[in-house]
C-alpha cells in the first residue's frame, strides 16, 4: 500500500529497486493469500524474495536481527514457506478447486515446514532476551525481574530456546504470545495504528504474537524434543496420510500403513 498508493505514507524505496519490486508484489500477493487463490506458488515466490531481501537489506547493517530490523522479514519469509507447503486450508479458493490435493499436501509437508518456522522463530526471539538481560547488541541490560523489562527478558531468554528446540512448545508459545500482546499494547499501540507500522519492532511484535498463538494450536511440527519425547513413549509420530472420499462425498484423511504391512496384508 505504501508503494502503490503512498498510504499510510510513501515508501522510501525506489520503485525499481529490489525492495521496491518486492513491495509492489506484496499487495497483489497479500490479496491472493487472503483469498487462498494460488496460495502455494504465490507464497513460495514471496518466501524466496523475502529471504533474499534480508541479505540485500537488513543484513548489511549487521547480523543481530533484533538490531538490524530483520525480524519481520525473516518471519514473513519462513511463514510464507510454511504456507507454500501447507496450503491455504479449508476456507480458501484453492480448497474449493481441489480439496483432495490440498488435504494430502498439507499432511505430507506441513510438519516439516512448521519445524523450520519454529526453529527460526525461536532463534530470532532469544536475541531480544539477550539484549534485555545482557545488553547484547548495545541495549540496556536489566536482570531485575521486578521490572517489566526484566520479566520480558526472562521470558525471551529462556522461551526462545524452548521454542527453537521444541520443548514444552505449546505451553511456552502460549505464554510468549501473551507477552507479545502486552508488548504491543504497552509499547506500540499508543504511537498510533498506522504510524507504528513504520517501526520494525512493532511489526515483529504482531508477527511473534500470532505466530506463537498458531504454534500453541498446531504444535511444534517436525524436529522437536517434544516429538522425540512422545515417540520414546510410543505416543506420536508424523503419519503418512492419503485422502479418501467417503460415501457421502466428503474428503477425509486416512493414515497410510507402512509399505511392508500393506504388502503383507495384500498378499494374505
Order of helices and strands, N to C? HHHHHHHHHHHEEH
Which word captures the global form? Answer: globular
Beta-strand portion reads: under 5%
Rounded to the nearest angstrom, the radius of gyration is 21 Å
Structural class by secondary-structure content: mainly alpha
The biggest beta sheet reads: 2 strands, antiparallel
Report mean pLDDT, rounded to a whole number.
85
Tally of DSSP helical segments: 12
Low-confidence stretches: 238-249, 257-268
Explain this structure to me?
- The chain starts with a helix and ends with a helix.
- It has twelve helices and two strands.
- The chain has helices at 2-5, 18-35, 39-56, 65-68, 71-86, 93-97, 99-134, 148-165, 169-188, 200-218, 225-232, 259-267, and strands at 241-245, 251-255.
- Residues 238-249 and 257-268 have low confidence and may be disordered.
- The chain has two domains: 2-237, no CATH class; 241-268, no CATH class.
- It has a two-stranded antiparallel sheet.
- 65% of the residues lie in helices and 4% in strands.
- It is mainly alpha-helical and 268 residues long.
Short description:
The chain is mainly alpha-helical and 268 residues long. It contains twelve helices and two strands. The chain folds into two domains: 236 residues, no CATH class; 28 residues, no CATH class.
Task: Write the SSE topology.
Blueprint: H1 2-5, H2 18-35, H3 39-56, H4 65-68, H5 71-86, H6 93-97, H7 99-134, H8 148-165, H9 169-188, H10 200-218, H11 225-232, E1 241-245, E2 251-255, H12 259-267
Antiparallel strand pairs: 1-2
